[in-house]
Amino acid sequence: MAIPRVIRNFNAFVDGISYFGIATEAKLPQLKIMTEAHRGAGMDGPVGIDMGVEGMTAEITLAEWKPELLVKTGTQQRFVLRPAQVGDAGDVDTIIASLGGLVTSAETGDLKPGTNATLKLTMDVRSYRLEVNGVVMHDVDLVNGRRLVGGVDQLADIRRAMGV
Fold first, then answer.
1. How far apart are CA 30 and CA 21, in angstroms?
2. Are 29 and 57 in contact (CB under 8 A)?
């Protein structure tokens, strides 16, 4: 019987500063292809046509209201998330997610006696790179029209056709 590898812990960086022990949760963007349904004459059903990548967002939740993070709304920032994935034998995978984009909100949690009020930063992601053990899985740059998945630049021919 196989035991799954699990994400055991993570660290979060905002603009190069580590929030080890302060970050409590994070959410990576979902790389999702936007499609438009097409059903031409003679086809038995619609097929999705690749129309580009859907907008991406990322989030980091922290256990305290850091003044330097409360003022990031409306600024271009870099988030780096580094989860550690551990196997049953104790071997560890290095995962690095690097994100660039616009911080769209710094949401403060509800104020209730006896509970912690968190701070959640949300980013409109414009670039996203995911590496596992040094191998690039995704490298997406929405502004510059680059989408590498598994080492294949899926937009290279389109850029070449446009003369870019």
1. 25
2. yes
Give the span between the Cα atoms of 156 and 133, in whole angstroms: 25
Let me know: does 76 contact 102? Beta carbons within 8 Å.
yes
C-alpha torsion sign, points 68, 21, 129, 32:
negative
CA distance 25 to 73: 19
Q: Rounded CA gap, 130 and 76, in Å?
A: 19
38-59 per-position pLDDT tens digit:
999 999 999 999 999 999 999 9
102-131 per-position pLDDT tens digit? 999 999 989 999 989 999 999 999 999 999
What ranges do the domains of the chain cover? 6-31+51-127
Instruction: Return phi, psi of residue 161, to 5°.
Output: -65, -30
pTM of the model: 0.90
